[in-house]
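Researcher: Here's a chain I'd like modeled. Treat it as a single chain, no partners, no ligands.
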Amino acid sequence: MATQHSRSAARIMMAPAVFFLLVWMLVPLCMTLWFSVRDFRPLRGGDNGFVGLENFVRFVSSSAFWPAILTTLMIVGGVLLISIVFGVLLAILLDKPMWGQGIVRILVIAPFFVMPTVSALVWKNMFMDSVNGVFAHLWRFFGADPVVWLSEVPTFSIVMIVSWQWLPFATLILLTAIQSLDSEQLEAAEMDGASPLSRFFYITLPHLSRAITIVVLIQTIFLLAIFAEIFVTTGGAFGTRTLTYLIFQRVLESQNVGLGSAGGVYAIILANIVALFLMRIVGKNLDK
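Model: Modeled as a single isolated chain. C-alpha cells:
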C-alpha cells in the first residue's frame, strides 16, 4: 500500500514530464489563439496588428468552409465504416487456425506501418493510374473503360487509400478482443442449435463492442487531421479539400497566418464536438 511519502516522491518524479507535456501542448495552442486575432502575414508586411474576430468571420464565411467540413466528415465516416466492417471480418478469419497464420497476420498488419505519403503514392501510381494502373488493366480485361479514380470518384478514392492504411489497426484491436472471447459460450450456443449468424450477432458482436468503441475513438482523432493523402493525390481538387487542407492553403498558399490560425481554432472545436458526440454515443461501452 502506497504511503504519503511514496506518493509525494512519485509526484515529484512525474512533475518534470508533466511540465514539459503541458508546455508542449499549451505553447502551440496559445500561439494559435494569439495569431488568430491578428493580421499576421510573414511575407506581406508581417504583423499588421489586432483585428479581433475578423479572421474567424472571414474563415467561416468563406465559400470553401462548409464543403470542407462536409468532406472531412464524409472521409472520416467512410473510413470508419470500412475499418469496422472489414476489420471484424478479417479478425474472425485470422482467428481461425490456418497454415502460416503468423506470416498472414504480419502481412495484414503491415500496411499500418507504411507512411501516409508512401501509401498515397503507391495507390495513385500503381493502382489508380488510368493508363498503367492495376485497376485500369482489370477494367480493360473485362472490356470496360478505365475509371479516372482521382477525378471521377475522388472522395471515394481518398477513403479507399486511407482505409487501406487504417484497416490493419482496427483488425489488430478486434483480433485481440476476439481471442479473449470464451470459446465455451460459442460451443454451448452451437450445441443448442444456434446458427453461425446467430452466434455472431448475439455473442461475438456484443463482445466486440468495447473494442469497436476504442477503434472508433482513436481513428476519429487521427482522421480529422488527414492531410498527406490528399496533398499527394488530388491536391485538394475535385471536392476533396478537408478542413485541415483548407487551413494549409490559407497559411502557406495565401501567406495569411492569422486566417489559418482561426481555422485551426475551428478545427479544435470540431474535434472536441466529434469527440464528445462519440463519447456520449459509444463511450458507454467502455463502462460495461
